[in-house]
Amino acid sequence: MNTFFQHVLNGITTGSIYALIALGYTMVYGVLKLINFAHGDVFMLGAFMGYYVAHALGLARSPSVPGAVLVMVSSMAICGLFGFLNERAAYRPLRRAPRITSLITAIGVSFFLEYGGQMAFGPDPKFFPQVFPKHNIQVGGVSTTNYQLIVVVVAVALMGGLQWIVYRTRFGKAMRAVSHNFEMASLMGIPTDRVISTTFVLGSALAAAAGCLYGLAYPKIDPLMGIFPGLKAFVAAVLGGIGNVPGAVLGGMVIGVVEEFTVAADPWVWQSIGLHIGRYKDAIVFGILVAILVLRPSGLLGRYEPEKV
Amino acid sequence: MTEPRREFKLTEGARRAGKPPGTLLVALLGLSLHLLLATGCGGTGGAGGPADAVPVGEYGSLTGETATFGQSTHEGITLAAEEINATGGVKGKPVHLYTEDDQSKPEEAATVVAKLINQNRVLGILGEVASSRSLAAAPKAQAAGIPMITPASTNPKVTLVGDYIFRACFTDDFQGRVMAVFLRKNLGVKKAAILRDIRNDYSVGLANFFAQEFQRLGGTIAPDVSYSAGDADFKAQLTAIKAAAPEAIFIPGYYPDVGQIAIQARDLGITVPMAGGDGWESPKLLEIGGKSLEGCFYSTHFFAEDPNPTVANFVGKYRTKYGRTPDCYSALGYEAMMLLADAMNRAPELTGRAIRDALASTSGFVGVTGKITMDANRNPVKSAIVLEVKGGTMVYHGTITPE
Lengths: 309, 403
Prior knowledge:
The complex is a heterodimer of chains A (309) and B (403). With 309 residues, chain A is mainly alpha-helical. Chain A is built from twelve helices and four strands, in the order ααααβββααααβαααα. Chain A has one domain: ABC transporter involved in vitamin B12 uptake, BtuC, CATH 1.10.3470. In chain A, α9 packs across α10. Chain B folds into two domains: 183 residues, Rossmann fold; 143 residues, Rossmann fold. Chain B is globular, with a radius of gyration of 24 Å. Chain B starts with 5 loop residues before the first helix and ends with a strand. The N terminus of chain B is likely disordered. The interface between A and B is large, with 77 and 63 residues.
């Protein structure tokens, strides 16, 4: 039973990082109907910014909690700025172009970040410093660390903050209006360009936060680290219902827990049917993507909306 | 104010009612394109060498996931080449080294070796450390009839690619046996778990040899779980391992993964010793894993504090040149270059065939990692060293010689 809860906790930790990334996919899709494939690489950028800020502050040698907060906030700010510039330079000029053009551009931005990152940061893995003291925690038979708990708590807090912005603020209302009907929103005087820019800033800042949390939990970071978490977060966003904020969170958690239990079930499945199911972890995640597109294309929480002519 | 894509919706959306949203399909297309492109890029510039030199090619992971493997090997090879040239070269001609970076990717290894053969016309090839990469490149050398010496790929399959492929290290059937004997007899472990990298020929091979021998010695393996190179989260596997309560965990992986696995194992409250093979050897291992690796063991080819004068001499020269202590890959790189030069000097002429024959007849060559005699499968028979992580550094624990 303890082992079960241990697996659940592990799954939720990974899942909350996927969820943070998935939020960026889903928000941008919501307002622009664009899958921003560069989003996973913004996550990588966030981790590297956190790494450099932490080293600049000397946190590797003298870890401190305020320092850790500063690392995360500055990484979010830098990536938010990057998100703004990215939208301005790469996507805004293509607003009238067919969707496929923007999508290909997103893939271009993704490559720019991956290979530009190899040039700027070097292609070798780097190791994210422990920015504040780490402790082991035992609750019942479940072992964890304050790091793992902080990852979950910070991720949930950020998701709550986003939920508040989207549903309780003037900007959130504008964002939902743009998402609902772009033309009508702009006719009603909503500054759609500004809404879109802000959406990119928010999404990129969340990805940066995810990058820093990832760095804490799994200290090895490299310029190509964003590819797989990015793709899995994309699956999470589709699973939850792309364009749907709570759906992205749910999707992220589900993917994290499914991955965990695929590996956890390996010894039993191997004994009963002679298959190492844990080796198919990634295949199962992408299998979910295929299944959801076939069976319920609008996702778990998405509403079924036939497109009108 | 920008104009939204009204026309697009009219033409594209019309037929889509009730089907998956069009953008998602396009996105899937993009996703596959992305993966396709992400797996095949890279390359390095060409080089021109002096006409009157013996061209030797080296390929290694100078960058990427296991960068310290390639860098250490390169330093060892460079040191050996300089020494050879300072003492008269090969048949009176200097050795010219062409170095290619494979970025720690098997497909890149095959490409750069083809380049070394076709463009640089090398007479011998040195590389790689990782067995997956040596296995990807070896068929190119074999087909071209250019002898290749892998300094440190321990998977037995590597030299079985063909009669032009040699190695300067022991093989995993020996290394796996060494660690099985060590855990079972020296540490008295009855039940060991295995955590292997399923995408790595070296890891899978070593895990199998270890399991075979450990069970033969009366031990049990439970559980035998796996991860994929590049994974960051090992907690699911480790939780399963913890539940089975083994007395040791065998992790035949490479140092970046091993370091992270060790941290996560200790986070989960697993206190039993971990053990592995020469893939652990890197100056970065302790930088990553730190205190979590305390009390863990691994087998390797070389120990820099060895009082043997050949070793002490090499370590001294290496420290003078690079300002750091050589690891086993530096030593094996040095060894491989020396083996090749020795064979070239003994060969009647400088052709692939003649050098191959001379290499195959290598006997009693005294190197820094032991005495080398090539067996029928072009593998040297050598002893292994077991190191322990103690007090934040590696200490010598014992030498195991093949019976």
